[in-house]
Amino acid sequence: MIHLFTTGGTIDKIYHDANSEFAVGDSLLPELLEEANVAAQWQLTELCRKDSLELTDDDRERVRQAVINCPEDRILITHGTDTMAETARALTGIAGKTVVLFGAMQPARMRRSDAVFNLGFAMAAVGLLAPGVYIAMNGEVFEAGRVQKNLRAGRFERT
Fold first, then answer.
1. Residues placed in the known binding site for substrate
2. Domains delineated in the chain
3. Contact 87, 99 (CB under 8 A)
4. Transmembrane stretches, by residue range (predicted)?
5. Which candidate, 37, 38, 40, 55, has a CA 20 to 30 Å from the CA of 20?
């Protein structure tokens, strides 16, 4: 069984046309997994609905405790890309679990989003990787503590 935790981020953002702004909404993961005909058993738990720039150290500790207390050893976490590397670092040192953080540069609700690809890639990665904490974005896997987001290029890079 794979346990999916959601924290918010761009992947779950919805556009409020009347206000011309985005907000974090319900996760589309159940719908996306069903559409993809994913056969793996999975469970979803929402931890929060925040843009990653709004996540605090208390939020990161809540994510860490959720991972520690999770009975499953394969865990996916949706996360906003701006502070994903920071949260991944905060999760290091949890023994016996494979934890993969992923997100999207464009909301899953948009036609030209990388969300579906990143979800599929993260699902594969969590099943194949050794225990540890990783970020899976845009076809690459990065170890926690050895990755940063390149804001200018809009992608993750090894450090």
1. 52, 81-82
2. 2-158 (3.40.50.1170)
3. no
4. 115-137
5. 55
